[in-house]
Structure formats: C-alpha cells, structure tokens
Write a structure and sequence with these properties.
The structure is a single chain. With 212 residues, this protein is α/β, with parallel strands linked by helices. The chain is 26% helix and 33% strand. It contains seven helices and 14 strands. A six-stranded mixed sheet has the order 1-2-3-4-5-6, with helices on one face. It has a six-stranded mixed sheet with strand order 7-8-9-10-13-14. A hairpin with a 2-residue loop joins strand 9 and strand 10. The longest helix is centred in the last third of the chain and has 12 residues. It is globular, with a radius of gyration of 16 Å. It starts with a strand and ends in a 7-residue tail after the last helix. The mean pLDDT is 96.
Length: 212
C-alpha cells in the first residue's frame, strides 16, 4: 500500500492519496486545493481514482473535489450531516478571500461504522462530530498497522476549532474520548493540518483532552 500526504491550498490541508500500486487503484482524502498538483501526483503513480472522501465539508478540505471529480469521474463521499456545511462553500470561500470553488456532485452517504472497500483498500468510517456535525475519520488497517485520517478533529497537541457552522466543543471532546481514545496507542494519526502524531501520544499529552 502506498500512502502519501500533500499539504495543499491556502490553509495547507493534508490531502492524502492511498493507492494500491499493484492494481493501479487509489482513493483521495480531502483534496482541499491545488488540483493540478494532486492530478500530477496521481498521474505519476499511474492510478485510477475510485473515490474522493471528505472528512468534512469545509472549503479548505473540499475545494478541489469538483475538479478532481470532473477529471476522474469518481464519486465524492461526505457524511449527510455536513451537507449543509458543503452548501456554504461560496460563503466559506469569501471569508477566506478566495474564489468560490466549483461544486461537486455529492454522495452524502457515509455511515458510522461502515467499511469502504476499493480493491484491496478498505477503510472504516468513524463519525466524530464536533468540529462540524458530519465530521468523520477514516481508519485504515494493514495487518497490525493502523492509520487514522481524522480531518480537523484531532491535531498534534491540539484539537479542531468548534466556532464554525454546527461546531460543538462538547461534541468534539466526546468524539475524541469515546471514539478515538478507544483505538490502540500505536495508531498513526494523519490530521487535517500539520504534523502526523499517534493516538498514544495525544492521549498522554494533548493539553485539550489528555485528562479524558
């Protein structure tokens, strides 16, 4: 399995490509911007995109989803509770001072606990409301190795903001403590922005939720 993460867009969103190079199939998580850069990496890997997955509907995570969908024909999947957040893309863009991106055709069908299978790639959906009502994480298991693409729920030494549309600090901390803290310590965390970390490190030392 090939996994790489690119910091894209005006807020350096972590966009991840998960690819099975043997079969030439891939998924893209959170294409927040810089479509051409993402497209060139996919072309270099010689993979076909089976799906575009959004951890939530904020423009810095979804800004290039429509362009990538047009280029690949892949479905764009989002949790239904973030449909209204995605509908606010023009407003979100204006607040950042950027041009509003094109709108993708959404498949708002992600369900907590479901397994998403694309060839040999399989991820489990974890609904983690708080940063937004429909925030989700994607858990990838490869033998004993676990990786969590958690969007803006948990960062290295921090947590996601909760003052945007539908955000809730209470819900965010509940999601972290009841969903993420149940994962093994060695689970690698690929957050929506910034450096990678692990569940164990954050459970021990994150000042926003380590006491949970």
């Amino acid at each position: 399995m090939h996994i790489e993460t690119l910091a894209v867009g005006p807020l350096a969103c972590n966009c991840s490509i998960v690819a099975d190079l043997a079969s030439g199939r891939a998924i893209v998580i959170d294409p927040g911007g810089e479509f051409e850069r993402i497209r060139k990496r996919l072309a270099a890997l010689r993979v076909t995109v089976d799906a575009i997955l959004l951890t939530h509907g904020h423009v810095d995570h979804a800004g290039a989803a429509a362009d990538l969908q047009e280029s690949t024909g892949a479905p764009v999947k989002l949790h239904d509770n973030d449909q209204f957040v995605y509908d606010l893309l023009p407003l979100q863009a204006s607040l950042l001072g950027i041009a509003p991106p094109a709108r993708a055709e959404l498949d708002p069908s992600l369900v907590d606990g479901e397994s998403l299978r694309f060839g040999t790639i399989e991820l489990r959906v974890l609904h983690t409301p708080g940063h937004s009502p429909g925030s989700v994480g994607f858990l990838l298991e490869q033998g004993s190795d676990l990786r969590l693409f958690c969007g803006d729920t948990l960062f290295r030494g921090s947590v996601g903001r909760t003052d945007l549309w539908g955000g809730s600090e209470t819900a965010l901390l509940r999601s972290i403590r009841s969903r993420l803290w149940t994962l093994p310590d060695h689970t690698e965390v690929i957050p929506g922005h910034g450096e990678l970390t692990s569940i164990g490190e954050e459970r021990r030392s994150n000042p926003f939720c380590a006491d949970g």
